[in-house]
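Exam review. A common question shows you a sequence with its structure tokens and asks you to describe the fold in words. Practice with the pair below. Do the first one on your own.
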Amino acid sequence: MRKSVVVVSTMATLALLGGCGKRGYDRARPDEFAVARQAPLIIPPDFALVPPQPGAARTQGNNPQAQAIDALFGGPARRSAGETSVIDQAGGATAATPGIRSGVGDPQTNVIDKGQTTSDIVAAPQGDGQDARASVGGAAATAPTASPAPSTPPTPAAAPTPQPK
């Protein structure tokens, strides 16, 4: 009897759960962030305008991402007087060399060799530092790992007793 109750209840549970996917209980919901406003239809000031090509980008520049950024942050802020004076003291806003990125890898650039250890550190993959190892002069050193706290607290150093004069 007990075995049949377990079998019947298991089958009933499976039958009830089998209907969840067909009844719309799945977690597929519409994306509320995919909705974008379209610009209202207007009568163009010049009727000689060429109609847009099918599939071409909109000419109004209706970029929802840019609209969201402008709504959140209010567009570019003006520089304060202090910021402007600091930039002017540093050489002005136009003092930067426009082609600086093309000259960085130039063969005429002077490079200082700081040794193999620095090259290894720079070339090492990014990690959390838990398995950090350094090799200096052939001897490998492993970074200490966190160990559990000792069961007995360390004893404080005895205070010196005052000597009578």
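Now try the second one, then compare your answer with the model answer below.
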Amino acid sequence: MKFFVPFTIGSLQAEQVYGRSKKRLEDIGFQVSDVRIQQLAFQHEGELINHRVGDVTPNGEITAALLHSDVGYFVCTLAVANESTGPMPIRYTQLIMDSSIMAVSYFDAL
């Protein structure tokens, strides 16, 4: 599947939102991989969960990106913007530890 970020217009805006999400984590000290993750399968409280970019999270937000770091996988969601003209805000809503991951699917190479 081709790389995308939900609710972005075109590949340029998708790249900007993804890049900002990655950079924010790097700015606070995480080492973030360059791979583009489409879907994760992981164990949570004994249940197998499949989660992909574009899915709704349990708190009702849309998954914008899945980022792999040196501490695990971050689920990044789209937050409500204060102004429609500002950059699309991203929130980090979940950290999934590497040991919980059962499978990872990637977007097609650019």
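Model answer, second protein: The helical segments are 10-27. The chain has a mean pLDDT of 89. Full marks require stating both points clearly.
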